[in-house]
Write a structure and sequence with these properties.
The chain is an alpha+beta fold and 169 residues long. The chain has one domain. It contains 6 helices and 4 strands; from the N terminus they run ααββαααββα. A 4-stranded mixed beta sheet has the order 1-2-3-4. α3 (87-93) packs across α5 (109-125). The model has no long low-confidence stretch (mean pLDDT 94).
């Protein structure tokens, strides 16, 4: 297995596409099959840090994470693959969600700090640099997700609708 620590720098899904993903489009049976295949491809180790699932901190299992190719200018997010990550690496990527969990007492500050330290140490050890934010980005309504050649649109018509939905979560 070849480690891919750069996965920790995978960008977050743009807000116009929150709420859609291959898992919700194709269903739980598809998701379970695809993530189990991803776990087997990684030899049941985290693809970002390399820890075997039995030795992972917090949970002794792996989590599936979708990787995408981003075209910010044209508003296209293309699904590439599902990868296996330990709980810490997966939460590191979803730092915004993790902060919301801390704010709502669903995660301790200490756990979040541990996860951030874990991810930051991998990034530093591999001399990785965070990519620059895109300068030219598509408008809200232009964004689409492409999965296996088919286009899907987001479920929120604009930022205000997105904000209303997530402010009640």
């Amino acid at each position: 297995m070849i480690l891919r620590p750069e996965i920790l720098l995978h960008p977050n899904i743009p807000k116009p596409l929150h709420g859609i993903n291959p898992r919700t489009i194709f269903g739980q049976e598809w998701w379970d099959k695809e993530r189990q295949e991803a776990y087997a491809r990684s030899e049941y180790c985290c693809l970002a840090c390399g820890i075997p699932k039995q030795k992972a901190e917090y949970h002794h299992w792996l989590e599936g994470h979708e990787l995408y190719e981003y075209d910010y200018k044209n508003g296209i997010l293309t699904f590439k693959e599902i990868v296996a990550l330990c709980h810490s690496c997966h939460n590191y990527i979803h730092s915004g969600r993790m902060q919301m969990m801390v704010n709502s007492d669903k995660m301790t500050q200490k756990k979040m700090d541990d996860i951030k330290h874990h991810g930051n140490s991998i990034i530093k050890a591999n001399n990785l640099k965070k990519p620059k934010s895109p300068e030219d980005c598509a408008e809200w309504g232009e964004w689409k997700m492409v999965i296996y050649g088919k286009e899907y649109r987001g479920k929120f018509s604009d930022y205000e609708e997105w904000l209303e939905y997530y402010s009640h979560q």
